[in-house]
Amino acid sequence: MLSSVPLTPAVAAAPVVPLLIGDTPDEQGKPRPMPAVKRKVLDAVAQELGVTFEPRTYPWARAERYAIEGVGLVYGLPKTADRLHTLHYSDTASHNSLWLVTRSDATFPFSSLDDLRGKTVGTVRGYSYGLEFDTARGKLFRTDEDISSRGTRLTRLMLKRVDVVLLFQPDGLTAKDLENDIRAFMAPRLPAIGAAANAGFSVLPRPLATDSGQFFAIASARDDGIIDRINAALARIRKREEDARRLRPPN
Q1: DSSP assignment of 147-208, as one string?
Q2: Residue 184 CB: number of other CB atoms within 10 A?
Q3: 10 Å Cβ neighbour count for 126?
Q4: Nearest to 160 by CA among 131, 186, 198
Q5: Would you give the distance in Å from CA 230 to the centre of its chain?
Q6: Cα 176 to the chain's mean position, in Å?
Q7: Which of 23, 15, 53 is nearest to 218 (CA)?
Q8: Phi and psi at residue 19, in whole multiples of 5°?
Q9: What is the pLDDT along the chain (251 residues), one digit of tens a residue?
Q10: In sequence order, what are the beta bridge partners of 167?
């Protein structure tokens, strides 16, 4: 029960709190390890709360349903108008940017959603990319929803089944950094694609969205104060990080 979460770290074994997370399977449908950036955030918050998070991974649509039903906290579910009616969200726990990846022989200028007009955009099934994007899908552009496997979606891009793929990445990573990561990640997969792999990957220089936050959330009716405690924990973590940056000697 979330109501058992103490305000201070427990002396005995830390209480276990279910944490719902969208799954990230690989091409074979097997779960991938949690990214180090996400693990660092979750570990830091759990330590501040004196709890142990028990990650439970599901397809995003199911994770959202379970969260609304009060099964546990959910992490990484974007805010929408509908969700804000049923879920109580924390302050921002981490930041992401949403980048657009194309074939290198099919790049296009991008400055707003209107530049996606008539295109097919590769997205993760059951995931929301924000109110503006969700309102435009099916009207301004169509979406090709697939599993959250990056390799699968980038393969579909190389096969020209989509025009562009959306990828969330932690802030601080540039378009060129992501491009290099994608090329290294996809290099062993390209031979299996065959003749269609006759181009490289390009990350458009302007992301679709910046500072796209990652949040904790819980069913509003089940919030016994844990969101306030998470917010306090996040504030303490941010203060320590800011203090560490100030004390860091200049280069």
Answers
A1: -S-HHHHHHHHHTTS-SEEEEEEETT--HHHHHHHHHHHHGGGHHHHGGG--S-EEE-SS-S
A2: 9
A3: 17
A4: 198
A5: 19
A6: 20
A7: 53
A8: -130, 110
A9: 444 444 444 445 789 999 999 876 666 666 777 777 788 899 999 999 999 999 999 988 899 999 999 999 999 888 888 999 999 999 999 887 889 999 999 999 999 999 999 999 999 887 778 778 888 999 999 999 887 788 889 999 999 999 999 998 776 678 888 899 899 999 999 999 988 889 999 999 998 875 567 899 999 999 999 999 999 999 999 898 888 777 766 55
A10: 99
| 3-state secondary structure at position 87 | strand
Contact 103, 201 (CB under 8 A): yes
142, 118 in Cβ contact below 8 A?
Answer: no
First-to-final CA distance of the chain: 48
Contacts of 62 (CB under 8 A, 6+ apart): 126
Distance from C-alpha of 20 to C-alpha of 22, rounded to nearest angstrom = 7
Q: Let me know: does 215 contact 75? Beta carbons within 8 Å.
A: yes
Angle, to 10 degrees, between the axis of helix 36-49 and the axis of helix 226-247?
A: 110
Rg (the chain; Cα; Å): 20
